[in-house]
Amino acid sequence: MEKRRGKPKQVQDFIKVIKPRESLRLLPKKVRLTLQWSICLAVLLLVSVMPGLWSDRSVLPYAHLASAQSVLASPSTEPVLDEMVYIPGGRFQMGFEYGSTDERPLHPVILKPFLLDRFEVTNRQFTAFVQATGYQTQAERQDSCWAYLEGQDDFLDVRGANWLHPEGPESSIQDRMNHPVVCVSWHDATGYAAWAGKRLPSEAEWEYAARAGKTAHLVADLGDGDGSAHLAHTSGNAPKIILTQANVWQGTWPVRNHLLDGYYYTAPIGRFEPNALGFHDMIGNVWEWSADWYSVDYYQRSPKENPSGPERGDKRVARGGSWFCSPNYCGAFTSHFRGASPPDHAFNNVGFRCASDVPSSQSADSLE
């Protein structure tokens, strides 16, 4: 991103000509007055046309900053957001023996200690990032985001939808500052993480944190709507699962959402009980980007220690499912389902949370 330093040469030269008052005194009074009035008129004309020169967002990439600043000023009752949870690392069996092909086989993974955000990154946090850097998301640059809108039968490429307007230009996040940010691509998420001095979690780190030391997998509790308590995308015998409260589609998509969780789209962070490690919304609410490339057969060749995904690919992994996931259409509201999408795509049901390596100067006792 180009940064302009100092004043353009033409303006600097202009200032040098008109600054010395001594040169004006050498002119006849009538000429001096005429010149002074001409300069005043020229300045007024320049000021009047400047807004028009800068109104095109292709010329000024920060044109949305005023909107972001007004949103940032709105009140909030959200919990403390800079909190990260220290995970001492350890060993677990990653994958799901009853799951889809890309979730098998079960394989041992050993992770080193790391830190992970307790909550998903919110609109308020992302607004602060935009305000500080002038960053434009990919959805803003292409003027559209893939969005599911109530009453439709699938996702649409909605013109004017972006993180400030998740359901299109008429929508707003003004009253959703403590909701997870959406309509952010993988590139947008990594940009925020770098600015915050963090990174995205690996897929293995995400699953380890989501399961919180349990051998069984977490599945969203779907309540009593349409017999949807059955786990989708499984094979073989009924697996042992742990039900958890989450913001998902409760009912038959797209006919009816019973809204037993109280939300059609995103929910405020921390609305549901945390898991055993203190993480909120690992299941449901929004998909969460991970750092890893996706490969359907990666679990068959994953290294045992600190796996970080394939070296290359055309999609990045996302985990956890979202408010859109229903048993009859998505079924991804589990700690084992592996989602994937191109890194330059943005959706109004995809967000992220950040991870970090443990600082070498910190002891484990000071972080726990």
Give a brief outline of the structure:
The protein is an alpha+beta fold.
Structure overview:
24% of the residues lie in helices and 15% in strands. The chain is α+β, with helices and mostly antiparallel strands. Strand 5 and strand 6 (156-159) form a beta hairpin. It starts with 8 loop residues before the first helix and ends with a helix. 40% of the residues are buried.
Record the SSE blueprint:
Blueprint: H1 9-18, H2 21-25, H3 29-53, H4 65-72, E1 84-87, E2 90-94, E3 107-111, E4 114-117, H5 123-133, H6 138-142, E5 144-147, E6 156-159, H7 186-195, H8 203-211, E7 217-220, E8 241-244, E9 287-293, E10 316-319, E11 338-341, E12 350-351, E13 355-357, H9 364-367
Parallel strand pairs: 7-8, 9-12
Antiparallel strand pairs: 1-4, 2-3, 4-13, 5-6, 9-10, 10-11
In sequence order, what are the helices and strands, one letter per element?
A: HHHHEEEEHHEEHHEEEEEEEH
What best-fitting shape do the alpha-carbon axes yield? globular
Count of runs of 4 or more consecutive helical residues? 9
Low-confidence stretches: 1-27, 45-67, 69-81, 224-230, 232-236
Q: Give me the Rg, rounded.
A: 26 Å
Query: What is the overall pLDDT average?
Result: 80
Work out the number of β strands. 13
Structural class: alpha+beta
Q: DSSP strand (E) fraction?
A: 5-15%
Largest sheet: 4 strands, mixed
How far the N terminus sits from the C terminus, by CA atoms, comes to: 39 Å
Helix content: 10-25%
Instruction: Record the strand order, biggest sheet.
Output: 11-10-9-12
